[in-house]
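Morning, I've got a small favour to ask if you have a moment. The fold is given in discrete form, as structure tokens running alongside the sequence. I'd be grateful if you could look everything over and explain what you see. No rush at all, and the record is pasted right below.
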Amino acid sequence: MLVHPLLSHIIDLVDHHVNISDWINNLKQGGVKIGDKGFFSIEEIKYYYKKYLLLKENNYFNKPDIPGEFGAVLIPSDIISNLSNTRGITFEVTDSCNLKCKYCGFGEMYGNYDRRNTKELEFYKAKLLLDYLVPFFNSTLNFSHKKNICIGFYGGEPLLNFNLIRQIVEYSKQLKLLHNQFNYNITTNGLLLKKYITFLIENDFDLSISIDGNESQNSYRIFKNGKNSFPSVMNNILHIKNNYPDYFDKKVNIVSVLHNRNTTDEIDEFTKTHFGKPSYISELNTTGVLKEKQEEFLEMYKNPTEDLYQNEDYSNYNRKFFLEASRSSVEITLMAYSGYIYKNFDEFFFTKGNNRIVPTATCLPFSKKIFVTVNGKILPCERIGHHFALGIIGKNAVEMDFNKIAAKYNGYFNKIKRACLKCYRNKNCNQCIFNLNIDDSSPHCSGFMPEKDFQEFLSNQFSYLENHPDIYEELIKNTMVF
């Protein structure tokens, strides 16, 4: 981890019961050499000792207390409340695609999805779900008044089933919502944009277009004949930029996947140069990789944060990366440990000691979105295996059992709770249970953090904020502070 060696060294000395003040006073030659990390002056040592004492006095090196009821049990009414206030509905409108990307999460490296059969979602299933949800949205359980509910379209390549997209948009506009309104988004590989851009603009779609950089960096995004899709996609993006500049500036996002043929700074330079805006960078899906494909996956995989710290223009790009990440590690750390930041007014007005806390950072079912697969399976998001379905859209009705959903989640949480209680990062965990081997009787959590690792983790987080006070200010401005 990126931890200042002095702080790490001081922590080691304290663990071995060394009196740090005496150690500093007895140092010769004005400092100390720590392995191959270099020579550090007395002034530097004193500074980091003060930093250690500050963190220690504020209990940052203690196992975080778990206020309230840890390992809380979900009940059916929790699921119903989440459903009534969900932020979005995403339809997988087709499993067909006009590309064959090497790293596709539905491609040959993965095995946790339903078989792809060039199938399209039927309109009646989308209609059944929308009709099922409207009474929840209009009920007294909905406390998200005046907030948009986003209807998203996903694939495969969703524009291959444009007729269904059009039907869903037209039908949703006929529905009478008492408290909310719908808006729309779509994630596309960009190949069919010229044909359908007018419809997307007329309906004010948020449009995300995938491209991984220049032609060489984009070389995993190929047609089925092996040809690079770059020239076609680039032409279509520039068509929108040049012909619909206002829409492009306000509503179009560039999405790039990081892998072994590009870097974060290369992607950033490319998108800023050609499109005048940064790219939203994501990593390869790490769940569901087949055992026989793990070596190939690891050769292709690159961690965004580790790659970020290797950039030549680290400080400038680092600002963008952390501020635009939806839930950056630094922001989560501030939320968890500052003691003055609250996620919402409920958390502010009601003492944390009364909170029910579920293990891990898993989103509670439907609290963020509802994802519908092309086969009508209902899941809490699109990034988990299809075998984790929570319901299904049948021929005549939506089939969801809230008791069974609550019991399923409670079973998962009970499996992992014991490990969570021993984990020093349980207060700001970023682990989703669906990315673990949660179906096993004793699942292993790759995010488990013992005391020493937790100390180094906090050192990393606060050193970053210490070196970038302007970033801290910008994060605070966008956070509710009391």
Notes: The radius of gyration is 25 Å. Residues 312-327 have pLDDT under 50 and may be disordered. Residues 1-57 form one domain. Residues 402-422 form the longest helix (21 residues).
